[in-house]
Amino acid sequence: MRRAPNDHAADERFLVAEDLHAGYGAGSVLHGVGFSVAEGEVCAVLGANGAGKTTLLRALCGMIRTTGKLRLGGIALPRRRPEAVARMGVAHVPEGRGTFAPLTVEENLRLGAYTRRDRTAISADLDRVFGYFPVLKQRRAQAAGSLSGGEQQMVAIGRALMSRPRLILLDEPSLGLAPLVTRELFQIVRAVNEEERTTMILVEQNAHLTLEFAHRAHVLETGRIVLSGSAQDIRADEQTARAYLGIGVK
């Protein structure tokens, strides 16, 4: 396990960030962040509230100003508009789910394919999403706002899948969910990653469960990466787990 603030890799890495700075207005939140993610990998980003985790995801999808180098599949991402980043295959599932409450479940899901024109493939992808989330098929004509919190999170993830993303950014998917619902949701997301090789970056407060699920992890502290390594190594190191994540090894 490496205890350096940078984890730069060669250009063959799928997502590469180098010396990334980002913030809001005149304030800076991220200070020279560097990391990389391999294609098909699940990368966890952990840290305390205010560490810059959500800001990092917003920087990756073009929602806020950034400086530094950021490449996806060898193509530069910084300074692109969010819709252009989305067309490059980046799907963002924000904290709070962002469900369109008055619309039906199916209408919410189809919104994820708004940039696509391949109607036959869209219908096939809708069936694919229902395969991952059978409860959504049962509720396809139901208003999304009437669903439980866990079901609304399924809608948010399913909507992201409808864009056929190369990279999914998940921001606190377990927020407000019961532990059993959270574990079920993580198992479905794991299945998506394993079956479709979709690259994922997962921001989570539930560090213990996240480290079971991810391949690699980076720990953010006040806008800087202070620890990088395999999720297994970070989880197994009791001193590290206690110092940076507030958890003990089980």
Short description:
Helix content is 37%, strand content 25%. It has 250 residues and is of the alpha/beta class.
Fold topology:
Blueprint: E1 15-24, E2 27-37, E3 42-46, H1 53-60, E4 66-72, E5 75-76, H2 82-87, E6 90-93, H3 105-111, H4 119-132, H5 134-138, H6 149-161, E7 167-171, H7 179-196, E8 199-203, H8 207-213, E9 216-221, E10 224-230, H9 231-236, H10 238-245
Parallel strand pairs: 3-8, 3-9, 6-7, 7-8
Antiparallel strand pairs: 1-2, 1-4, 4-5, 9-10
Helix pairs in contact: 3-6, 6-7
**Which stretches are poorly predicted, pLDDT < 50 over at least 5 residues?**
1-11
Helicity level: 25-40%
Chain-averaged pLDDT: 89
Return Rg in Å. 18 Å
CATH architecture name of the domain at 15-89 and 165-245? 3-Layer(aba) Sandwich
Measured between the Cα atoms of the first and last residue, the distance is 19 Å
Tell me the fraction of residues in β-strands, as a range: 15-25%
Q: Look at the helices and sheets and give the structural class.
A: alpha/beta
- Would you list the SSEs in sequence order as H and E? EEEHEEHEHHHHEHEHEEHH
**Total of helices:** 10
- The CATH topology of the domain at 15-89 and 165-245 is given as Rossmann fold
Query: CATH homologous superfamily of the domain at 15-89 and 165-245, by name?
Result: P-loop containing nucleotide triphosphate hydrolases
CATH class of the domain at 15-89 and 165-245: Alpha Beta
In total, how many beta strands? 10
Strand order of the largest sheet: 6-7-8-3-9-10
Explain what the structure shows.
The chain has 250 residues and is α/β, with parallel strands linked by helices. The chain has a domain at 15-89 and 165-245: Rossmann fold. Helices cover 37% and strands 25% of the residues. It is built from 10 helices and 10 strands. The protein has a 6-stranded mixed beta sheet with strand order 6-7-8-3-9-10, sandwiched between helices. Strand 9 and strand 10 (224-230) form a beta hairpin. The chain starts with 14 loop residues before the first strand and ends in a 5-residue tail after the last helix. Mean pLDDT is 89; it is low at 1-11.
